[in-house]
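INFO  loader      accepted 1 record
INFO  loader      residues=400
INFO  predictor   begin
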Amino acid sequence: MLGFALLGGLILNIMPCVLPVLGMKLNSIISGAGQSRKQVRLSFLASSAGIITSFLLLAGALSALKMAGHMIGWGIQFQSSGFIILMAVVTLLFAANLLGLFNIQLPSSMSTWLATKGDHSYSGHFIQGMFATLLATPCSAPFLGTAVAYALGASYVQLWLIFAFLGIGMSIPWLMFTVFPGLVKAFPKPGAWMNKLKLMFGTMMLLTSLWLTSLLSAFIGTTATVLIIGIVVIASFVMVGKVYGRKAFILMSGLSVFALGGGLIVGSVTADSWSTPIVDDLNWQRLDAQSIPSLVAEGKTVFVDVTADWCITCKANKIGVVLQDPVYSQLQQANVVTMRGDWTTPSDSVTGYLQSYGRFGVPFNIVYGPKHPEGIALPVILTSDNVIQALNAANGTPND
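INFO  predictor   done
INFO  writer      dumping tokens
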């Protein structure tokens, strides 16, 4: 399980949740290309320490909830509107800083003192590491679910050990730079192109902030959420205009309108050539675990999808597999019942259902049928083949 934790933590680095923070880290690497080997080592060691510390804080929070008798799981902090607001504000501030909309100016005396002490903002690298971990929690990855499920059902010592190894696994790329600081020289030399790169990373972080804000719709409603997003976008455009001039404001507005309109036009023109238009019109029923045995006894096949709005892996499974043929057509068959458990906000029934299968996070998909009334659990990352095979095995249809 410790090995699974290492691999799961390592794979988190390539999940889309962590990408904006990796962009910030890449920018700091290139900016510090002239640093000494010691400074490079310490900066990457600080990032690694931030990642591991954040995982240990998660372990502590989950331990406290477990001792208090609460139901726990991976990513449950995204079920809190307060946490989502905090993350949205932090990512928005990071985005504004990368876009050059504001800079924190220290007093000249303090700047001189820091320069003489050789400080290179190791605390900033530490915070980047912690932030990367928090943004990684909406994502599930291979090996991660197994390790977390074992940890949350094991002793407190084992829970802390596994979460520490998750942190070490996610830190492996940064630890490589700590051991081999000369790898920094492989990156391009600093130049004017870095300003464009910062703008790109700033835009990515702004989009992350807007995505986090969109998750508030489950708490405050769609209208209020859209209003907040509109205010943030307009304010960002206005600030860009003030910093970079009216031309930048007009250009940014024009590009946004062009991108939105162009996307709609391209989508409408090419929709017929898609394998299946991405429209979720499946007859989803609310998850009712007690009704599944009776449905199976009637000869039905039941496909259960436990998901959450903040779960990136869930959305990838939905768009890439569930709503695409051949799975989409198979789930529309008359003998197939589709059930969905929503874990976006706290739900004791959904949490209890997950834990009955030894799962403590989403996505979780399982197929029941006359030949497998106990259910066939599917992997975290779905493929068309494994879903079709499970559906056929559950209802007794031979696979080709």
